[in-house]
Structure formats: C-alpha cells, structure tokens
# Entry
Amino acid sequence: MPHRRRTWALAALSAVVLTGCSFFSTDADTGEDDDTPASDTAAGGPEAPTLAAQVEAGTLPPVEERLPDEPLVVEPVEEIGTYGGEWRTYMMGPDDDNAMNPIGYEGLVRWAREYTGASGTDEILPNLADYEVNEDGSSYTFHLRPGTRWSDGEPFTADDIMFWYESVLMNETLTPSVPGWLTAGGEPVTVTKVDDHTVRFDFAAPKAFFLHDMATLDRGVQVAEHPRHYLEQFHPDHNPDVEALVAESGLGDWVALFENRVDWRRNVDIPRLAPWVVTDPPNDGTTATAERNPYYWKVDPDGKQLPYLDQVSYSIVEDAEVALLRAIDGEVDLEHRGLNQGDNYPLVSENQEAGDYRLMTYDYDSMNIATVQLNLTHPDPVKREIYNNKDFRIGLSYAINRQEIIDLVYNGQGEPWQTSPLESTPFYHEQLATQYVEYDVDLANQHLDQAGYTERNADGIRLGPDGQPIVVTIDARIDVFNWTDVGELLVDYWAAVGIELRINPVSDEVRTERRDSNQFDAHFGSGLGGRAALIVPWNYVPVAAPAAYGEMWARWYEGYPDGEEPPAPVQEQYDLWRQLEATFDADQQEELFKQILDIAAEEFYQIGIATPRQEFAVVKNSMHNLPEQMPSGSPYPNPAPYNPEQFFKSE
# Structure
C-alpha cells in the first residue's frame, strides 16, 4: 500500500471549489469588481454581532486573534448564512445524552457529508488535524491545526492529546482495559508527541480501520475532548491536593470527580472545541441551552466565523408523544428522534403547512428494523442452554408472521428479512437474508420439538431442561422503531408455539445498562451495518458491545477481564476479522468478510424481522443549509457531518 496523506487543502478540494482566494484565507474574492470585502456584504461582518459587541467593550479579543492560523472553511449546503437565532429541539428526559450528539462532533477527523459506508478512507476528512499513514497502516501521524483554541481561549495542542493518552487511556483506574479499537497485535497503541502540533499513533500491527474509529463519535472524538489545562486539577498525577476538591464536590473519590468534570453535557466549566458550549445543562428543570463558542475555529467561504446560530435550545420532554406534539405545532426547528413511530408519518406529513415545516428524508444504515437478540452468553445456565439451541431459535423465527408485522406496525414498508447486509451492497448474503423467514407454525413446532422441549404445562407453555416453563423477557426501547408494538405481536406468535414472551419497555439508558451488565434475556436491535457492514460489523461478528446476542464474547474480544472466551465458530470469525483489520486491500477485505458472513449464516445468532422503512426529520421552513436527504445511523451521527455550524434561520 502506498504512503497516504490527507491534508486540509486536499479535503477541501474534494468538497468545495473556491475562486480567487486561499482555501484558508478569511478574505474571499466575490467575483465582483468592487473593493468591498465579501465578509462585509453578508450580514454585517466577519463575526456575530453579539461577539463584536464584546470585542468593542474590550471583554473579548478581536476575531482575527481568536481564529487559527488557517481556519477550516465550511462550504454551505445552499448559501452564505446570516447570524442570529436559535435551533429549537428537545431531549427525551434529562439523561438523553444522544440529543446533544449533533453539537459534540469535533474530532481530529470526521465523516464526509455524503457518507455511504464505502471501504477505504475517501469518506474520512481532516478536521482538527490532517493526517498521514505509513505503508502498512500501523502508524498514523496527525498534524493539529495551529492556532486552534479551546472555548476559554487557551491553545489546543499536542499536550491535550497526550493528557488524554497518558492520564486517561493509560491510567488503569480510569481505563481498566484499553478498548479494542486502540489495540493491535495484542498491544495497546503508543501515542508520541512529535512537536507542539503533531502526534503519532503507533500500533504493533496494521490497523486498517483506525481512521474510521477516529471519525466515530463515541470513539475517536473523545481524543479531542480532554483540555489538559482544565482537567489536570482533578487528576492525582497532576494535582497532589485533588482530595480537597473531592471533599468539596461531595463525590465519592477522584475518579467520580474526574468523570463528572469531563462530562461536557452537564459541566458548564469544561472548555470545548465545538460550535456551541453548554451553558444551561439538563441537570434539572425543563430546558437546556448551548451558546456559541467565541473561539470556534471554522469560517464560511466569505471568512465569517461560524456558527451562524446563536444557540441551541432544548426542551426536556416527558416522552415521544410530547415531542410529536411540539413538532407538529411548529415548535421544533430540526429533529427526528422519537418521531419515527407507528402511524406518525401521516400525521406529521399532513401538518406540514399548519406547522410551517418540511420533512427531510433520513437514509438509515440498517439491514433490519428489529432484530431479536437472545442472550447467548446468559448468566443463567438453563437459559443459556435454551438460547444456544439453534433449533430453538429457528423455531421462534418460523413462528413470526413478518408480513403482518410489516402491514400493521410499519405501514406496509419493508420486506421479510433476516440479518444480511442489504441487497444493494457488495456484502449481500442470500442465506443470511432469507433463511427461516417463512411464516410456518408447523415448521416452528417441528424445530422446537427437535430442540428437545416437547413437554408442556397446563397453559401450553413448553418446559425447559429444568422442568420450568420457558419464559423470555425482551428489553424494548420505548422511544424508537415501534419495538413494543412488534413485541406485542411476538407475544401472540410465540404463545401459539408454546413459548411465553414478556415485554420490558425501557429507556435506552436502562437497556444499555442491562446489556452491558449481561442482565437480560433478549434485546431488540436496530440492525446497524446494512450498508457500512465493514465499519459497523457487530451484527455479523460480535466485536463490540452492541452485539447483545454475544455480549460476553464481545467483552472478551475487547479485552475486558470479565469477558468470556467464545466457542469455535466465533473464534474463527475473530481470526478472520483480525486478518481483515490488518489489510488495506479492498478485495481481500471483501473476501474475508464474506467468510465471516458464511459463519454468521450457519450459526444464526439473531432473528430478523424486516428491512427498515425510510425515516424522516422535521425541519422548520425558516431553517436553511440542510439537504433534502441525509445519511443516518451509526457511525454517522446525523446531522453532525453536515456541519450544523452552517445551519441558519431566516426571519
């Protein structure tokens, strides 16, 4: 593989063509023959009026002193925007951390707007840094953007990256086990400061998807979320008097204090690199607010400092029904979460004119709207035996009337499907897509009998190997995908073949907590990786926690001490995955992944329902610089890759 380098300028040329100016210049040629700077012709100057007033008052340095040496130029989706206004949205309760993801996506690199999940690195763009990769993909060098500052005005340098590496990642108290995305060849990454604006990540073996991980919100973005000058006061390696701060805080120990202080959604004091900084956290009350960062390091093509919008305002709502009412009443400027439920689409669609909004299509990266993930690593040995019986899983699959679910729950959208990548992708696997999808009660009973569970109680429920009725409880998130509705239908389908199913409606936070602690029978999953199967592989090979069907296997793979060594077929998949991670050759990656899919089809880890329907977001008509359609789904943290800092509102 040749030496690879991606610079800010090269990334820019892939997305924008500017005429008559340096890409990093804050002065632009408008194509006019007058002497008026472009920035003075668009909404009054190169910075927001509220910031200009602070400069005039002497409480804030001039904008040219706040911007980097070479600010990142963001090309608007439609047009140069104007300053002012707020982005109104909501949170599903004060613990709904995902609501703030769109304003927290600023890593060293980022996903391109038109992300497709393609193999290779063409869809990974420089952001806070440009990068170069050595020939075998074992060493990655990042050159930070000189002059970038945290929201408090302090410089962002290699020392901040090294603080994250030395004091967080390599601190066994804060990080008991280095996550798998930061290891290779059985060894953790080594990070070296080359100079004040350069860091190098070295792995013991090739790491083909490291840049993909660095572009992912809950992985690489954290590397640039640890301002050393602020956080070192809460760390015993840097502050011998940290216990005094612990006592003052009322928290249990320095770890609790540090984790509390690094939580940017709730700690208004932590400096940030994002376009907006939380000033009113969702700790209590009914609202939360994030206000513009005066040191934000991106500009538009006219040299105007971003963001355009003054603030992001969150209403803390009780449930999805309240969110829906706010949306159709025109009180939401941009949001999709909680709206894509049941029969909401006709209601939301028909109220567009009255609510003065439009609908934006989300192209969700999923291969299935609702996968049933039985916990194959269940701590109860009886339940583990039952769930690992392949005939048991096959019997449950045949018992599902998928077309009825599609018609009743998903408005006729979708087709019966197991858990293969989508047919439009190079990884489509016919067996994994179509096996056991027929609705056939006789076949269901046949396989459940073959599983050995022929005895039943007086209510017709089959008895397990311990002589007790087989009862499965499935955790269903209450805010997405109509999983509780699907579950209610499954209750009847499975009762008809002698299996009792109970639905446990939970929040995403509770569901994740139960999954991570391995205290659950079954989960509904969202089938991520329909297109980006190589980037989001856990529905096919259990390499990360979202693979709830093999939770403890995933933890073993990631190096957690409580993980459980998996059986031979999973071990074989892991061997193939390690080979795949070690090569940049797309053809070889494809061949290795097809072998992984062969094993997934044979093992039949989880049960699919149907291909996903199209999703939508509500967009207020006064909101601009958004596309008509946008990718959606992990690892693409929509709408963040479309640069919310360039969104703006008209009067």
The longest strand covers residues 357-364. Confidence is low (pLDDT under 50) at residues 10-44.
